[in-house]
Here is the input.
Amino acid sequence: DIQMTQSPSTLSASVGDRVIITCRASQSISSWLAWYQQKPGKAPKLLIYDASSLESGVPSRFSGSGSGTDFTLTIGSLQPDDFATYYCQHYINYPLTFGGGTKVEIK
Amino acid sequence: EVQLVESGGGLVQPGGSLRLSCAASGFTFTDHYMDWVRQAPGKGLEWVGRTRNKANSYTTEYAASVKGRFTVSRDVSKNSLYLQMNSLKTEDTAVYYCVRCTVSPLARTGQYFSYMDVWGKGTTVTVSS
Here is the structure.
């Protein structure tokens, strides 16, 4: 199974900050990686697919990069609505696996 | 509007069974892979199982933790996805999400790398005596 490791697990930031979340796969997954945002009590929401493609309707301050084993999700200027937990997930083979999540908190 | 609505969650004793349903609307149900993903209280996301699309004969895949106990199926006449859960354990307690998957535009002919693009609101399953 491919292990997905996210860091940090918790991040404290202020509105307007640039935030970077990293995700590392235990083996190469090419660009078959997605990022999701989840708010408390809500379902996850797709932000990025194919490592760097922005889902329709997602603000352009979100961006993704990377390929192979190392990936990043960047929030260009953190907004109040962005305080949430973020997950990465690969979809190259089975079982599909998620990272452990990164909680972005208000500083 | 694309929509997924889960139902069927509840309280069940260890060793019991439960069947979750997911009503899909707003898209061509037979074209898409469909997943179940769960989230235990206070924990992260865990993929449970998948049914492929019509082009791939609706075949299924499962996480090791549920293989042999859970079955994913769909009724295309009702645009519905199901998760039959048998031999339930306390560790199956979670919110269960129905998820639509879409094939990546980067996938070549014959490849079906799919990301999870639409999620239902979830239904809660509690396994406890």
